[in-house]
Amino acid sequence: MHYSSPQPSNFVNNGKGFVVNKLDFDALFDVSSPIFALDHFLMSEPTFPPHPHAGFSAVTYVLPSSNNSILNRDSHGHEAIVRPGDLAWTLAGRGVKHEEVPLQRGVNVEGIQLFVKLSPENESMPAEGFAVKREQMPIVNVQNSIIRVLTGTYRDTSSALSLPEPFNYLHITSQKEDTLSIPLSAQSGGLVYVLEGQATLNPQMALEDTKDRSTLEKNGVQAFNAKEDTALELRLSAGAQVLVLHGQHHGLPLYSSGPFAMYSKQRLTEAKAANAVGKMGNLLPYQ
Q1: What residues does 7 pair with on adjacent strands?
Q2: Rounded to 5 degrees, what angle do the CA atoms 89, 190, 174 make?
Q3: Across-strand partners of 155?
Q4: Residue 3 · residue 212 · CB < 8 Å
Q5: Does the predicted model carry a pTM greater than 0.90?
Q6: 198-235, pLDDT tens digit by residue?
Q7: Closest C-alpha to 157, from 178, 141, 135
Q8: pLDDT computed for residue 206 by the predictor
Q9: I need a surface site. Which of 18, 55, 142, 224 has the fewest CB within 10 A?
Q10: Strand order in 11-13's β-sheet?
């Protein structure tokens, strides 16, 4: 197992009605691949007009405790109301225009948005949209914790959502202090993000060996990857809420420009050109 340095909370105002925990993925992506962005946000007003994406998936999880919902829509006709506890997965592929707005203006919707890089084989596939409702997500009771499986698999339990590329998205809530083991497949990478309480990664490490042993506080993040089949060991404080997110670690340099992210300069140039001539569709701002 390899770990990044932990990052603490860094919430900032980023436009009218939008507050976000800004994380430094220049320091994380080598380890966290395929994840190259995570925004923990509070949004009360339409903040970003319709905009293009290409080469990755934009994944929005409205936290179960949120006071509002999101309208998620794109230029290929996918549209969903993402209510508290629901998840929307916009696979941009070769390109799509996308917009998300709070369903009720003036009321904060709290959520997590991920950018998950598609593999070189799939980064130019046709765009698709997926959604899964809270009540469709399986729940696993493990020791003193509850694990909600948003996407992917936890041991023998799988999400109802079928994705072109495997990605495990777990929301873990501890009822008492607990120690958990999360299976990881070879060549996987991802993040641990703390919503509430504390999480200690690799708690079995000797106290004096702090290189691979970190305690994350609320809204802290740490990346990990595994070259072989192994497990991520976590110790959670009582009442902790933690997201564990992981998929295939690509180990490739990323070429990005604004809303486009590819694994080759040529494909990045092609995506920008496709957007310039309208090949990613048209989407007017939601009224």
Answers
A1: 221
A2: 90
A3: none
A4: yes
A5: yes
A6: 999 987 653 444 545 679 999 999 999 999 999 999 99
A7: 141
A8: 39
A9: 142
A10: 11-13, 18-21, 35-43, 109-117, 56-62, 87-91, 128-132
Q: Which residues of 19-40 are buried (b: 16+ CB within 10 A; e: fewer)?
A: bbbebebeebbbbbbbbbbbbb
CB atoms within 10 A of CB 75: 19
- In one letter, which amino acid is 52? P
Q: How many C-beta atoms surround the C-beta of residue 196 within 10 A? A: 16
Q: Which residues of 241-253 are buried (b: 16+ CB within 10 A; e: fewer)?
A: bbbbbbbbbbeee
Q: First-to-last CA distance in the chain?
A: 48
Between CA 3 and CA 83 the distance in angstroms is 33
The single-letter code of the amino acid at 67 is N
Distance (Å, whole) CA 71 – CA 90: 13
Tens of pLDDT, residue by residue over 135-171, are 999 999 999 999 999 999 999 999 989 999 999 999 9
* Closest C-alpha among 131, 132, 128 to residue 75: 128
Burial class (CB in 10 A: 0-12, 13-18, 19+), 209: exposed
Least confidently predicted of 35-39, 127-131, 204-208, 281-285? 204-208
Q: How many CB atoms lie within 10 A of CB 175?
A: 14
Task: Give me 278's structure tokens.
Answer: 């309208």
| Interior/surface letters 210-222, b for 16+ CB within 10 angstroms, e for the rest | eeebbbbeebbbb
Residue 241 tokens read as 């809420």
